[in-house]
Design brief:
With about 130 residues, the protein is an alpha/beta fold. About 40% of the residues lie in helices and about 30% in strands. The protein has 4 helices and 5 strands, in the order E-E-H-E-H-E-H-E-H. It has a 5-stranded mixed beta sheet with strand order 1-2-3-4-5, sandwiched between helices. It comes from Oceanicoccus sagamiensis.
Amino acid sequence: MDDNEGSMAVELVWESQETLQVIYTGEVTGQQAVDSLLAIGSDPRFDQLRFILGNGATITKNIASDTDIEKMTSVAKALSKTNPGIKNAVVMGSNEAAQALVNFYQFLAEDIEWQVDTFTTEADARAWLASFT
């Protein structure tokens, strides 16, 4: 979430009280991903949150170490216990960086309370989320 490099790699866009889009762009570090999860959990709207659209279609590089992934998993597990009803749709491109994040989300889905699914288009992800309304 730091803006030290001139561009924000992770942006949180609250579309409504119940819907959050997390936009990953360019080069994303593991710490940025951890920081975004912490920001989501500390936001006062978190308790009403029902839908997360993780949009990583424009990721060009994913720099996440095993330690970063362990931290992300730990934070996501804690958040899912606090608000277990969240549906998390993840949009990823087909490049290697995006696929690494897809693999992380699939691994994460086994460990948390949220329903998580991955998609290749934002339209498909939004349709899946809409099926729960």
